[in-house]
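Researcher: I'm comparing several assemblies side by side, and this is the next one on my list. It has 434 residues spread over two chains. Same procedure as the others: predict the full complex and return the structure.
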Amino acid sequence: MPIERDDRDDVLLRQSAKGDQDAFEFLYRKYQAALYRFALRMTGRAWAAEEIVQDVFMTVIREPDKFDPHRGTLGGFLYGVTRNRVMKHLERSPRDLPLGEKTDEGFSPDTLASKELTPAEWAELHERRAQVRAAVLDLPVEFREAIVLCELEEMSYEEAASALDCPIGTIRSRLHRGRALLLAKLEMLRDVPRRANAER
Amino acid sequence: MPNDNDITGRMPMTCEEFAMACPEVRSASDDNTLRQAVLAHARQCPRCAALQSNLQTLQDDLRYLGLETKDADAPPRVQMRVMQEFRTKHKTMKARRIAWIGSWGLATAALVAAAASWISWRHDHNLIGRPGTGSAEVAQSATNQAPAGQSTEGLVLGDTFVASNSSGDFTLLPGSTPSPMEDATVVRVQMQRGALGALGFTVNEEHAADLIQVDLLVGDDGLPQAVRLPEATE
């Protein structure tokens, strides 16, 4: 059966539960990247993100009835499952990512380095981004997921609230506190000159 | 904290309000009222100006961090594994469905066959005793040809042709005890001569397959108690 762009996700999921491979593949292609990015940004590890995404879609294959279209969107449901898997992963593995450590192949900082930068500036930029990345990964999970969804994934508050199944106000406050924590961490790490500048 | 009215003419925002509003106004247009208020506050409050600057730097850093992984996709091997699992699951489900349908089909066929054979058996059983049909006719004609000295009157009880209740030369069947005659019924049946062997009679094996008429003395418990061979059969 040809997949229509405007077919609803729950219809596609029902078709895939009956064995329609095209419907399942369509859903996989639609959601895999976003879920992978979320898992990657939450865990900081490509292998973990890969495992999590695989696990999420295995759940969709084995237990499609777990999704109830009356309770929300399939996207929200998949984010919820991904989030649970991320939590489990984070519980299992301690925070062992030292600041500035090179992460897995999921990150590619070189792609963002400006061609105009001198080697010294490039090194400074690279270091700062590594510190930001480490600071994000060091945030408590609830603040981290708000930062990941709203700042990195550039979701609206509504979308983030739907993905995390919580009120918009919660997203707003977590984001606010997450930013404050990040600022505190990064200030501690780097920013004496900036503070001096600001006071000038 | 500044207390003067800002350029928009409204009450200036507090530092707490500034901290909440600052990250929100980044993408707002220049003539946005909130943005104007934030900028006005930042101009008057060095601490909040520093906060705004730091927040902006942080948001830039986060944006770059987001861009680093913007195009990240799950590797193709994940899709391969997931699709393999999908095919395996649905192949197994299909096989299970076929097996399920097959087993139910077999069970239904067996049930239908059993029902058909039971109906057939019932039909045959009824035909034996029904007057005017097949073997009952034979039994009736045999009754009509009964030798003198025996009653030839028959009664029809339900589907069974019943011979007259006369006390003839009945031979008790092994293991049965005589009961009062008023409780017994004489039933004439047709059977193979060879079956008499089981009742204790001597049977000529050459004629074992012949069909003969036999009177059975059936007690009130429904069990045959004695048997008699009409003279013509003997």
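Model: For your comparison table: Residues 72 and 162 of chain A are 8 Å apart (CA to CA).
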